[in-house]
């Protein structure tokens, strides 16, 4: 069972109890969990062949309305999110310099439905020491956060696909990314920058994505026709963005993205979308 699925199941026990109001807020705990996973992946630092270090101290900045809804449960939610990060790190063979903590903070510059994640690596006296030829990051005062990396905005829409391995680390200075959730509106209707080429591959045929949305289905009116009896007339659509997402359009048989049945999922280069008995490969590249 995947890390995100286990996290969701743990939260289900609170839906009719302590966390009932949490799930009525614009920001959903599962969306924050996905952002924390990406924060680990994007800031993983390879120390040696057997050790990849990721941040262990996280701040989740929320709009005033979302913070007011979630703050009464911040301790319990922080513990659940920290447990999810620990499980995810174990799966990806990441290590930490100290204990894992997740904090919620209010940000006056964010609108309802938006949030921002910042992270840092904090060392503790119980941490393993690095190899002699490597330099250990110096601990920082707990109330000061190092400048977050620059990143393009992204729109989470469900559990992210699990990465195959840890990317090389290093972080650049710049503002932390702002995340906009489904239903909160989008700052731009198309892909960021316009420098990314996107296409799909079906049975060896390539179909360029040159519009904000691309409908796939068995109907001749679909943007890309999929000749498969298990595919509905308007089965699903790909929405271009940073990142792009695939959305089921009420099809009979649903969609499977990277091995998981879902209504909506974030896409990355190489994501596999199964409709009926047909596999669609989503591709994207710079330039």
Name the strands of the widest sheet in spatial order: 8-7-17-16-13-14
The string of secondary-structure elements, in order, is HHEEEHHEEEEEEEEEEEEEE
**How confident overall, as mean pLDDT?**
74
Strand content: 25-35%
Instruction: Tell me the distance between the termini.
Output: 37 Å
Please summarize the sheet with the most strands. Answer: 6 strands, antiparallel
Helix content: 10-25%
**Uncertain residue ranges:** 14-25, 126-174, 181-193
Radius of gyration: 20 Å
- Please tally the β strands and state the result: 17
Shape: globular
Structural class: alpha+beta
What attributes characterize this protein structure?
about 290 residues; alpha+beta; five-stranded mixed sheet; 4 helices; 17 strands; globular
Q: Can you describe what's shown?
A:
17% of the residues lie in helices and 27% in strands. Helix 1 (3-12) packs antiparallel against helix 4 (74-92) and helix 2 crosses helix 4 (74-92). A hairpin with a 2-residue loop joins strand 13 (255-257) and strand 14. The protein has helices spanning 3-12, 29-42, 64-70, 74-92, and strands at residues 45-48, 51-53, 57-62, 101-106, 114-120, 178-180, 196-202, 205-208, 213-217, 224-225, 236-239, 245-248, 255-257, 260-262, 264-266, 272-275, 278-286. The strands form four sheets. The chain has a six-stranded antiparallel beta sheet, with no helix packed on it. A five-stranded mixed beta sheet has the order 10-9-11-12-15, with no helix packed on it. It has a four-stranded mixed beta sheet with strand order 4-3-5-6. The protein is an alpha+beta fold and 287 residues long.
């Amino acid at each position: 069972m995947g890390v995100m699925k286990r996290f969701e199941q743990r939260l289900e026990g609170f839906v009719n109890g302590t966390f009932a109001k949490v799930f009525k807020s614009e920001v959903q705990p599962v969306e924050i969990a996905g952002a924390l996973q990406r924060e680990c992946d994007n800031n993983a630092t390879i120390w040696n062949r057997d050790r990849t270090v990721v941040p262990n101290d996280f701040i989740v900045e929320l709009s005033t309305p979302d913070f007011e809804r979630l703050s009464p449960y911040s301790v319990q939610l922080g513990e659940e999110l920290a447990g999810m990060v620990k499980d995810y790190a174990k799966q990806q063979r990441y290590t930490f310099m100290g204990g894992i903590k997740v904090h919620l903070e209010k940000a006056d510059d964010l609108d309802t439905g938006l949030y921002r994640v910042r992270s840092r690596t904090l060392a503790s006296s119980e941490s393993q020491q690095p190899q002699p030829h490597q330099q250990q990051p110096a601990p920082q005062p707990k109330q000061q956060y190092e400048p977050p990396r620059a990143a393009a905005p992204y729109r989470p829409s469900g559990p992210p696909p699990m990465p195959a391995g840890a990317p090389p680390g290093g972080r650049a200075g710049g503002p932390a990314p702002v995340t906009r959730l489904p239903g909160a509106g989008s700052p731009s209707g198309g892909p960021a920058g316009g420098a990314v080429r996107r296409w799909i591959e079906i049975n060896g045929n390539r179909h360029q994505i040159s519009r904000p949305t691309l409908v796939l289905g068995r109907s001749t009116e679909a943007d890309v026709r999929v000749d498969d009896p298990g595919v509905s007339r308007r089965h699903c659509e790909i929405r271009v963005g940073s990142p792009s997402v695939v959305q089921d359009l009420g099809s009979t048989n649903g969609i499977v993205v990277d091995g998981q049945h879902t209504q909506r999922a974030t896409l990355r280069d190489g994501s596999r979308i199964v409709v009926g008995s047909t596999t669609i490969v989503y591709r994207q590249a710079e330039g």
